[in-house]
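Re: Re: token formats

Sure, here are both.
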Amino acid sequence: MSANNPLSNIPPLGATSGMAPGGASGRFRQIDPVRVVRTHIVLLIAALVVGVILGAGSWFMLDRGMAQFTSQATLSVNAGMSRADQTGVTELSNMRDLEPKILTEVNAIRSQEILDDLLKQKPVREQTDWFKQFNADLEEARTDLEEETLRASHIRDTTLIRVSATTSNATDAQTIVSELVGVYLLQVENRAESRYDKDRVAFQRQFEDVVAQIELLEARIRGHLRDHPQSAMDQRNDAATQEVLFLNAKKSEVIELLSAAQASYQQLQQRLEAGDFAPADDEVQLIESSVAIQQLDAQLRQLRVSRETQIDSGKGESHPVIESIDSQIRHVELEREEAFDRQARSLFNAKVELGAQAVAVYQEQINTFEPRIAELRAQIEDFQRAQADYETLLRNQEALEAQRDEAQAKLRELDVLERRSGGITVELASPATTAKKSFPPHWAVMIPGVALLFTGLVTGLVFLRELLDQRVRAAADIKALNDTTLLGIIPNAGEDPSGKVPAERVVERQPTGLLAESYRQIRSAVLSKMDRRGYKTLAVAAAKPGAGTSSITQNLGASMAMSGRRVLIIDTNFRRPHQSDLLGAPESPGLIEVLRGDQRDPMQCIHTVDGLSLSLLPAGNTNGAAPELLETPAFRDLLASLESSFDIILIDAPPALLTSEAQLLCKHVDAMVLVARARTDTRGMLQRMVGQLDGQRADILGVLLNDVLAAAGGYLRQNFREFHRYHGKSNGSAAKGTKPSAVAAASNGSAPPSDRMKPDSEETVIVEALQDRDELEDLDDFDDFDEDKD
């Protein structure tokens, strides 16, 4: 089939074995937002309407029962004259310098002192309904001002402070703001009168404290110089440093000698433990020249001369005298070897003792360096610490002198400022405004806002339900699983434009319908894979009952038979055999009788469907039939013998997750097709089934998604409509003179060649519709279709 066919959802042929890699399978499913919106559009519209109603009702109730009014005033904060050389009241060099001052004033407006003065004002106590509600309870009224009624804030990037009051009465809000501003400005004026006196006292105290600190610091500097003369300290520090360098150099030399002595001593110890006392060449000469060895060598020479004399006198090697001399020679030689070994060992022990003494001497020398080096380093650290203390004292002296000079300058400047300015830093920028409604918001804002909020909540719940839904509903859910390939989809029978028809034998009874076309799509995909790989046996299995495995097996077999293949269906569902009911064949004898040996010739148990090259081997008498029959060599031999008589062998298998037959069949068949029922099977169930069956002999070709609703996929509806348009053309052509029986005959190859070539046959019209598929690409609705969105 063409990949552009509106019903086609068949991916290209994947790897030659195993399942093609799929997407990652997680807890949340991948969803198509457009499909979800289209599926739930009625609910979303209803949610929008309900949201509008809720917004209107909420606004009406809040406006009648909880309306709030807000009045506000603005204050301007001036920096004043911070220097004596300024010519104006306000000079802002940097907004950041003034911001702490503004924030301080904001806190002052909301201070307890200002609020207490506000509550004492007669207009507030006698003319406002706000104050009357507290029954003269000043504590409760002040708490309400702090937490609910009053607001004071700095307007960013300006020198302004906004003061506002919010009450249920418009007049009360304006009265409270007006009185608050008056109380606060009066306090600012009173504060300015005494500010310079307080500042002068503060600066004078600061100046005196700094002078006292300077005097104390100068005394410490003099004492430090007396205890640590600078020139003597430098000389002593240099001498100690030079001595440390010299001692470190000597120590390094001794450490190297110690390392060499330790290495030599370690080698001697290893030889001592191994019993290796072999002397060096010079030591051998020393041992050889010893008196004991010389005496033994003289005896050996005498004995050898005596032996030669006796031999010359005619005595043979076996003469007693010769043998006695040889015995003496051996005895002396042995004594010489023992004497040599004793002297070599004695010499080796002397070397070991000397090595140990050398290591001890070097180690003692190193130990003598350490105390002196530590003493010198401590002296150097004391010198450096004294120098650092001295430098710190000098820096502190400079800092205190700078503070003293700054305090003197402040005092002089304060005298000038006091003569030039009154120092008022806050003034009224705009008086209290007429109170305006601040709550609830305007209906044009609140009603759309509530409607959008409610609609968004419903939309979020819809998408959350879609994300958490584990059921397989569309082709995209199959593609999202790991190690799965989607072979095709089979629509719900109600989606067939020809009318609601039973799914059983729909390929034979309604060959021009939507379901029959879906089976042709699947047939092409399955046969393409099987032919390329040389497969002949194909098992069809689902995860659990009710997936439509038997009906799919029969319709797929009929579709293959119509393409000219010799097809055999074998019913291996011993628990619930159904193929004999679908095809109207007797239940027995069948597969069980053949496997048990009750029926020798399996061809006598095979029934042929009239008008099709489709045959059935029923399950047989299933009473007491064990699934192990499918694991016997008889079943393997049966399949081998039937492959020579049929092109395709379809096997209707029981549910894979409930029974073991599917796993047994995987050992004998060439390939398997898995069936999933939309809106019933879950992704986890399919994943477990794939994991359970994959890795066997059978090659899992892919998954068929059965009973798909157009609404579940969203994009399928347009595809079904396009098929219906072509379906209408085929019906019109068929009405001119071609009977459905002729279509069936042409499909299975039993009609004459002349009949098959008639242009007005329904089968020919469908083929032409599929070949003219390129015309659909110009339709705007079909542009939404692609494999990823299925």
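Second one below.
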Amino acid sequence: MGFHVARRMHSRLRVRVDAVLVTAGALVLGGVSPSAPLAALVAALGLFAVLAPRLSRRASVVVLVALAVGAARAWIAVPAFETELLRVRAALGPPKRCSGVARVETSPTMHGDSLGFVAAFESLDCEGTSIGRARARLYGGGVELARGDRVEVVAQLAPTELFRNAELPDPLPPAARSGITLSGGALSVAFVERSRFLPALVDRARAHVRARIDATFPPLAAPLARALVLGENDLDAEDSASFRASGLSHLLAVSGTHLVFAVLSLVNALAFVLARVERLAASRDVGRLAAGFGAVLAPLYADFAGGSGSAVRAALMLTVGLGARALGRRPDGARSFALSVLVGALADPLVGLDVSFMLSAAATAGLLGLGRPLAERFVPEASGSKLRAVLRVVAASTVATVSAMVPCIPLLAGLGPTLTVAGVAANVVAAPFGELVSLPLCLVHAVAYFPVLERGIALVASGALLVVRALARGSASLTWLAVPVPPPTAFHFVVLAVGGVAAFTTPHRRKPLLLGTLAALFVLEGAAHRAGHPKGVLRFTALDVGQGDSALVDLPDGTLVLVDGGGFVGSPVNPGTQVILPILRARRRSRVDVAILSHPHPDHYLGLAATLAAVDVGELWDTGQGRAEGAGPEYHGMLADLARRGVPVRGPDTLCGPPRSFGGVTLRVFSPCPSFEPGLGANDNSFIVKLEHRGRALLLMGDAEHVEEDRLVAEHGGELSADLLKTGHHGSRTSTSVALLRAVRPAAATVSTGIRNRFGHPHPTTLATLQAEHVAALRTDLVGSVSFRTDGDEASLSVFGTRLLDRRGKTWF
């Protein structure tokens, strides 16, 4: 008898697995496989082992087919985009002025003082070069632009640049989602044909609402209102950072929660009105009529609000649920969620790479899976006590926030360096102002007809939005509550997915499964830390930062050296925040022991300044020419910040001299010694440094050109020999002479350059010289990051994570 009771208890503990949700998950997993093939395969095997016993044979077959179909679609889409990207790059070359007829493909959104949109060119001519068809992201154009419009465009265009670095996720699959191969500024846009279809009407309504917000909201509140209503992220840098750090970004985005709140409010209001029509209420179920209206409204509202992944997924879920209600069926939240993910995956083979969509899915899964158990445990029962009622509301809000946030933590950890505990309290306090006050008022403002009413609504809504802004800034300032989090690797996600699903579907084994998951995460984290802190080896990594220069050097004793940081003058893209800091996070590094600025040019110090401001710094090496002769404000700001923090700055006077032991290598600074030469350009006053580890060496040339190269060869000759050469001045025709190459005798040379540069780097003459001297030229614009690693005996060379060759003795093979 006890055996049968145990079996019945065990069967009750088995959680029902929704086959539709598993099928949708298989499609999504197959779609992300190009980003991390091995991890996706391990995840598929692990999840199938967990879920197969709970699925019928037919369902198991469907899931496997979905996985294969999802992977096949992704592996077709990504290489096809890469082929198109390479075609456009080869045809265009450096940035050019282009003209052609295009169709507007995406809703124009505000970016600063201009609109951004994607245009599909039917034909494109760039200074006499025919590019043919291409998709471009453009900035500029009139506010009256709408999807479907055919326009004649003149624009300054450059190929899409993807920073490909081995320790960061491959940017190619996410870029393939958009299919955008060009970007630039629209110089003129003239209408050829205006669209009259529904998407264009929606965009013109968006333009009207945008104009009314800008006209009636105070300047501080207008960007917040546009974000809330139109999904436009046009906040200033400080506000954007505050909302992100505080965990309140969703309150100023058209998130799934906002969409559900807005649509259901309208559905309930309509049902209330229809119920007052006696004849209609007597003959029809007005709730079903209102639900049918909501099922149609949800996708339209998601489109009007910018069509973010989270809004679209929530709209799909609402459409399914409200559609079921309209047909007289009982809505099933779990099934509606499953269908929303399934439709999203069917519509977009790479939807798993849409962070907005995945955050929305994770938050909804948390509300469905964790919300009820946590509410049963922590939300007090309703009673007549006012205090208890208030506590109940606060507890319910906290439980909902925690339930939605917990599954999102791994994704959020990949987006920023910290997660704040203050975010939970900030959400509880700010949510009423964002969702119960600001959102309804902003939506009513969008349809307000009378100017006086419009301005009054804007005034009240602005007050609520500014309260949310103050809460975001306040909670973000509580840095002592911010918990540093490393970015999860692909295998962290595998362990979390397999362990989490196993624990959820087998409650009777939940504790050991959770403990096993934590142990596996601990092991993976240890492996990631060791990979980021190599010992006993010299590792040099030339980073892909576009048209600029930056490299990380790991010394055998664990010292980390950062050489330059790249940079683009006048561009919002900063390699420090976009590339270097994410790589340091991936390596589990929060300190740069030595920072070297080879010379004070913006394409070397802009990213360095942004990086050093965010990490601990041991010391900076600087030639001193920038301080003596002047450089940009960012350079002087960097020095001032380091001085305030007590970071020593060392110049050639203390660094030049004979070879010395440093960090487990033999280091020698060849130039500029004993100091920079006044009157000589900064390039030829670059730091030139050689690092040698037990017979293996690399030579870093900064941006040195022929003047400095000739002096170097004449004074030091054979002392320059190295396995790897970091070429000077991005491979320009004024650097990397035959004399230098014969003195250094490298097996390979890195050339740091970007596809968007206007300088013709690297010059064909320099590439021909390298080839003639049998030196492999590794261009970051073509191969991504380049890594050289040696233990002093054996050496290896790899590009963007792919090993090219090994070296023992004097030969590479």
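The first strand starts at residue 96 and ends at 104. Residues 648 and 797 are 34 Å apart (CA to CA).
- S.
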